[in-house]
Inverse folding.
RNA sequence: GCGCCCGUAGCUCAAUUGGAUAGAGCGCUUGACUACGGAUCAAGAGGCUAUGGGUUCAAAUCCUAUCGGGCGCGCCA
């Protein structure tokens, strides 16, 4: 939570000749009376040292003498509470204003690969994918800011059975356009986008394509659908570094390579004319089929090859972001990765829980089958892309959240995105006003009374720690909550204390704080994929 | 039936991964505009953290049982 304090405590412990524990927990008390930061280290040490935690706390506290800390207090069961030096908080404002790289933490030298969305190119993206897309993108931005070396990846399933069904679906719809019979089986795709593609083909080529084979329609479909997917993701500011094609992996022999490696290690066996993987040995419910009795692969097999490919590309950590409806897939995936020689810790899965859309009281129904689905474009059109991005990362990933469309488009403080954007716009407006009066931003703080803006200062100081823990916990919602709280504190400060007054020197000092607030809100919003507006 | 996720104010959600008096917003009640943008602010009411048992200095958080909800459980992808 706070590196600097950790180090200070460590030096005290060393002086006391106490072995330094694995982790020193620093937290921010929810009650301000308990200081800016606090640690429970004394209570944790009490057992081993056979000493009263209060005594230990006092010994540690007495050894602390840092300019950074104004006061150290020991409280009841054995907490040590720290009160930061206010001058330090003002120095922090200066840093925010002057350092472009503020909020970008030192490199960790850890290579992370994050795979998200990875929807099959057999139809349009729908709103179900949008949460994973926004989460994945925000997570990547936050990981990068906190010093990880991040690669963003989309796995394109352009190789399996479903692609053949896509080809058939398009061809049948095309035949329909040409006035022939259309035979769509249950395995086919019935979405409107397939009809649209057929229509496009017909209007461009009339009935010249009737003798083209299924593969022709497959490739055409993938190309068109994928570019549509990319386009939609782009409008959401969601981007990727690498698009890996399943078909290419198959062509390059990666699947055989993975299969051989698993066979060699003795993880496979044959039964009922099929080849199985002993995933049960690594905690899966049952063993899984790799090669079906008809000789084709299951979905699982190329996916193992894909993960082998990622491993060989040298990432320290793979993060897969999966929809809740695929969580049953996790144990076999983790099993396979371990069989390929990696530790459990090398692969992480984040499960995106379902989203329910509501308009006030009314539940918005949508289903893939009836074609009644809300598309992402419609969602963006209805509430705006900032709200889409914000709302999807506003909640912890494992809550089955409600997305209130009515709330998301409200222009008032009920709507959290609006509230935050307004705080930013307000900062901009004050700064513009100051510019008119030719007031500059001060770099010295002589007149300002810290008490009037203490809350704002310490909230701004929290920012870097928020980035760190938001990244460590893979939880963008921590950042979202932070901006909201920061905005609230700002609005409150704004109401209580006028910035631009006749006292020009004092005004300039206050402007520095306003500008720092503006910068932090804008940086934080950027990490959520939202461009901060200067005007509403 | 088995597995995963979840159950916190009337509603939507937090809670620094075991910390101090469980916090926000909406809604409800009351108050504040001669204003750098009132598109906002200040205050109040509202809780046996689904339920029972356990672990310890400390439990919404960990273990266990039960109840309730969501999602999975294919030689589909």
């Amino acid at each position: 939570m706070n590196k600097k304090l950790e180090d200070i405590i460590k030096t005290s412990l060393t002086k006391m000749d106490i072995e330094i524990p694995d982790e020193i927990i620093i937290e921010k008390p929810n009650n301000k009376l308990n200081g800016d930061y606090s640690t429970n280290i004394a209570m944790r040490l009490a057992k081993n040292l056979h000493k009263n935690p209060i005594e230990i706390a006092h010994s540690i506290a007495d050894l602390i003498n840092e300019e950074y800390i104004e006061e150290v207090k020991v409280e009841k069961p054995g907490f040590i509470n720290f009160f930061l030096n206010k001058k330090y908080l003002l120095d922090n404002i200066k840093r925010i204003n002057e350092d472009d790289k503020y909020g970008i933490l030192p490199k960790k030298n850890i290579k992370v690969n994050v795979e998200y969305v990875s929807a099959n190119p057999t139809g349009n993206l729908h709103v179900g994918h949008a949460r994973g897309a926004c989460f994945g993108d925000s997570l990547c931005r936050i990981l990068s800011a906190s010093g990880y070396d991040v690669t963003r990846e989309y796995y394109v399933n352009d190789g399996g059975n479903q692609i053949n069904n896509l080809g058939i679906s398009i061809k049948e719809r095309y035949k329909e356009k040409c006035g022939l019979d259309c035979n769509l089986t249950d395995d086919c795709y019935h979405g409107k986008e397939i009809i649209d593609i057929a229509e496009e083909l017909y209007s461009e080529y009339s009935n010249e394509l009737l003798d083209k084979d299924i593969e022709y329609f497959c490739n055409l479909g993938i190309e068109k659908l994928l570019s549509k997917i990319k386009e939609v993701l782009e409008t959401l500011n969601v981007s990727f570094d690498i698009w890996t094609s399943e078909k290419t992996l198959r062509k390059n022999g990666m699947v055989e390579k993975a299969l051989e490696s698993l066979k060699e290690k003795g993880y496979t066996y044959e039964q009922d004319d099929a080849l199985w993987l002993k995933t049960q040995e690594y905690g899966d419910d049952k063993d899984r089929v790799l090669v079906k009795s008809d000789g084709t692969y299951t979905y699982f097999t190329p996916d193992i090859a894909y993960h082998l490919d990622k491993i060989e590309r040298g990432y320290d950590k793979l993060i897969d972001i999966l929809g809740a409806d695929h969580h049953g897939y996790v144990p076999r995936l983790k099993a396979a990765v371990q069989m390929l020689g990696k530790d459990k810790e090398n692969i992480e899965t984040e499960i995106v829980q379902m989203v329910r859309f509501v308009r006030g009281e009314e539940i918005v129904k949508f289903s893939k089958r009836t074609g009644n689905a809300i598309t992402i474009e419609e969602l963006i059109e209805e509430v705006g892309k900032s709200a889409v991005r914000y709302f999807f990362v506003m909640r912890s990933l494992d809550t089955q959240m409600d997305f209130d469309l009515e709330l998301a488009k409200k222009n008032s403080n009920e709507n959290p995105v609006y509230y935050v954007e307004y705080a930013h716009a307000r900062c901009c407006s004050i700064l513009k006003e100051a510019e008119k009066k030719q007031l500059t931003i001060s770099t010295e703080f002589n007149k300002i009374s810290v008490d009037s803006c203490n809350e704002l200062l310490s909230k701004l100081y929290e920012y870097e720690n928020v980035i760190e823990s938001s990244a460590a916990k893979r939880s963008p919602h921590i950042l979202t909550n932070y901006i909201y709280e920061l905005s609230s504190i700002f609005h409150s400060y704004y109401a209580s204390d006028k910035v631009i007054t006749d006292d020009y020197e004092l005004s300039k000092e206050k402007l520095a704080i306003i500008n720092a607030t503006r910068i932090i809100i804008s940086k934080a919003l950027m990490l959520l994929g939202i461009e901060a507006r200067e005007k509403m």
Q: What stands out?
A: DSSP finds 19 helices and 15 strands in chain A. The first strand of chain A starts at residue 26 and ends at 27. The longest helix of chain A spans residues 504-527. The mean pLDDT of chain A is 93.
